[in-house]
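User: structure tokens for this one?
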Amino acid sequence: MGSERSDSKELKGIGASGGIAIGRVRITDRRRVQVAEHPVRADEIPVELARLAKAIERAKLDLATLKNQLAATHGPEHLCVIDAHLLLLDDNTLVGETTQYIQQLGINAEGALKRTLNRVKSFFNNVEDEYLRERGNDIETVVERVLRTMVGERLEPIIRAGDGRVIVAAHDLSPADILQIDKSQVIGFVTELGGKTSHSTILARAFEIPAVVGLERITAEVADGDRVIIDGTAGVVIVNPTADQFREYLNRKHRYEYIERELLKLRDLPAVTLDGHRMRLKGNIELVEEVASLKKHGGEGVGLYRTEMLFLNRDHLPTEEEQFQAYSAIVKQMAPHPVTIRTLDIGGDKFLNDLNVCDEMNPALGVRAIRLSLRNPQAFKAQLKAILRASAYGKVRLFFPMVSGIAEVRAAKALFEEAKKELAGVHPFDEEIKVGIMIEIPSAVMIADLLAAEVDFFSVGTNDLIQYTLAIDRTNEHLSPLYEPLHPAVLRSLKRVVDAAHHAGIEACICGEMAGEPEFLPVLLGMGFDELSMNAGSISRVKKILRRCTMEAAREVVERILSFRTAEEADAYLKGEISARFSESFD
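Assistant:
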């Protein structure tokens, strides 16, 4: 496959789904629909409104048809993303705002819908949380489907008959596109848009399809039939590789796949150190599609189930029944392993119209997460009831996000007790369900000993804890060098939380990114964390290292690393220790 062509080039994007794919490119037209806004006469406004309504109904029919087709091959448990898109098409905010633009501005339906989309995207682009920010892509996908219907464009198939095994290059791929991919033909994909937390890339990881995203102009950089290598771990795409590059990446591919096969042999082995210390390794998930990958990699349960997807982009809140169906689907598939469900962790915005919220200058530090839930007790109790009902189908824990003090915990627990009383005699549930909190705010760290007396477990959200402790926006590329997991303040905070939890006889867990980074394993192990929760693909790697460590050596590392005054010193020491003590594990 390799060549000595002078047009060989290496491009860098975002590694979205691990693995290496080598093949020929198939460019799929997934460019955004180009529509023009133009004025319409007053007597034409009813016509435009009818065109909008007809296009929305057609989009609903197309999605419903697709859902039925996918149910035959994937099973109903894989269709929550399609259901979410169907709900968006019923959203009164989306439809109502577009209707107002048509009526008040006197413009065509396409232009009005594009205005709505631009305003919604502007909002999501300013959302701090990466997972929530990526949900704006769902709205764009749905709007694009309606616009294509309006202008009479139909999406071409991702691949054509006779294409063989190909790497798909596209402007973007929707979750529906990923669900329809035949893995025997599509061996990888690369897109111009997307991030690590978009639903499409989450599905790619769940289905283990190598992918690189966020690579601008890739469809202009390649031509149909070009030879391409994609490295979904490093985010590298090589177009028309040289013979040397081809050989190098073919060897990398073989080694990667060999290592993956070897790691999967650890699936059923316990996560235990050489000197007998047991630690639980679980997975963070958002979609039910991720459960299969989590099981395949030996996850011992779900350590963080994010529930926000059910609440976003809707005119009305999900009902208790809708939430119960979603939660119980996860719990049933994971049984007998436990599922830890986080209550709503989102800021108040107009996409949650039923909630008691207000405009804020700084939503990141405003009415969000547990604060928002407590301001809306009936909506909060509906979620708590749904979680309780799901606990009848397997082992469930729940925890509250962004807790800053005792009053919030007690108020949330009081509503939880009310939810139990209202369900008693109506629906079965686990009477002994455990309740925890996320530790992600410095104030919670400082009073960890007091909070430990109120709950059954702690789960540290290291992403936000580092961000709030160091006053660093982790999505700001200009500040990325200052985002330091080994900063003394962060390390001391983690140790304080573990010690407070164990002193009170409760568990200390981690569900942030540090948990899935193998180089931090000796530190988190030595501190005494009971459970680490991470992306499914990281579990086997962390387990391999854990099974070659000793608790004694990890404690020595922690004792020493806590003595350093800068993150740079701690990092240099840790790298030296990994090289000296744990190098075989990290090979």
